[in-house]
TrEMBL record:
InterPro entries: IolE/MocC, IolE/XylAMocC-like, Xyl_isomerase-like_sf, Xyl_isomerase-like_TIM-brl. Signal peptide: none annotated. Residues 30-274 form the Xylose isomerase-like TIM barrel domain. The lineage of its organism: Bacteria, Pseudomonadati, Pseudomonadota, Alphaproteobacteria, Hyphomicrobiales. It comes from Methylobacterium crusticola. This is Inosose dehydratase.
Length: 316
């Protein structure tokens, strides 16, 4: 099975905490992402929102545009209203030829609140679940009709965080609602990425590869830190620098025929964790683990790594 390896600008500049790398120029991020070996990158707040300008800028650094984060409010609004709210972002992804949207349900989330423990996240009631599932199922179908599928991002501090919540989400929706498998968020939540991968490999349509420092995660629970404090203190790191078994997590995906991107996305303070150093480590470890799991790099990515030109076409 062929894959491509990408990254996220959050290692260079954190959109939720501008004080973490806020003064780092975008060109530095893009140049170093390419230098580390990646051939694609997800969207950050510093990126242009004009499709042609975005594709041209990334292309000048040998990078393709992978996708971008969207925080939904489906607990509070209909699928039709959500589609209208996401329209600018969806149109950008469509114009750039993206196949998935990094999608999270962020109503009531505590992920961006520095003073609220991540343990105090919202939880959906028994009465909420059927309404939510109906809405996201409808939205997934509408988005699939437009050529961009939901890659649902389970996330610390949100209503979909645990294995049980992921199971309920996917059991209650059709194939148009895909799963973004995030190794770091699963381990931080106390779950086993390999078990989720084994159970839901046929629904995984995007991968975020991050590692976890277990001693920091233990302090988060014991001292009731917020999600943002956890990030600042280094709960996350790149593949190869924590406790995640990436071969075990990726093997079920290879066996299920996963094809697509694997994105190194590890929030860290760039003043403590040099972005290029960690990006390079993450790329090398993830590439090796993916190979051991049964994947190989897409030939175009291998050609790019050797310096050969790659074609890019802007969707119209």
């Amino acid at each position: 099975m062929t894959i491509r390896l990408g990254t996220n600008p959050i290692a260079w500049s954190n959109d939720d905490m501008p004080e973490l790398g806020g003064d780092t120029p975008l060109k530095t991020c893009l140049a170093q992402a390419s230098e580390a070996g990646f051939t694609g990158i997800e969207k950050g707040n510093k990126f242009p929102t004009d499709p042609a300008a975005l594709v041209e800028l990334l292309g000048s650094h040998g990078l393709d545009f992978i996708s971008g984060w969207y925080g939904a409010e489906l607990r509070r609004r209909s699928a039709k209203a959500e589609l209208a709210a996401m329209r600018p972002h969806l149109d950008l992804l469509k114009a750039c030829g993206c196949e998935v949207m990094v999608f999270a349900e962020t109503s009531g989330t505590v992920q961006g609140l520095i003073d609220v423990p991540v343990a105090e996240r919202p939880v959906m009631s028994a009465e909420e679940w059927p309404v939510f599932l109906e809405r996201i199922d409808e939205l997934g179908k509408r988005m699939a009709d437009e050529g961009v599928r939901i890659a649902f991002h389970h996330h610390m501090g949100t209503v979909i965080e645990t294995a049980a919540e992921i199971d309920r989400l996917l059991d209650g929706t059709g194939p148009e609602v895909g799963l973004l498998l995030d190794t770091g968020h699963l381990v931080f939540a106390g779950e086993d990425p390999a078990a989720i991968s084994e159970r839901w490999a046929h629904r995984v349509n995007h991968v975020h590869a991050k590692d976890v420092r277990p001693h920091v995660a233990a302090r988060v629970r014991a001292e009731r830190w917020s999600f943002l404090k956890s990030v600042v203190e280094g709960v996350y790191t790149v593949p190869g620098d924590g406790c995640v078994d990436f071969v075990a997590a990726l093997t079920p995906l290879a066996q299920a025929g996963y094809r697509g991107w694997m994105v190194v996305e590890a929030e860290q303070d760039p003043a403590k964790a040099n972005p290029l150093t960690y990006a390079t480590l993450g790329y090398r470890h993830l590439a090796a683990a993916a190979g051991e799991a049964g994947f190989r790099l897409d030939p175009s990515a291998e050609a790019a790594a050797r310096g050969a030109p790659r074609s890019r076409a802007l969707a119209v």
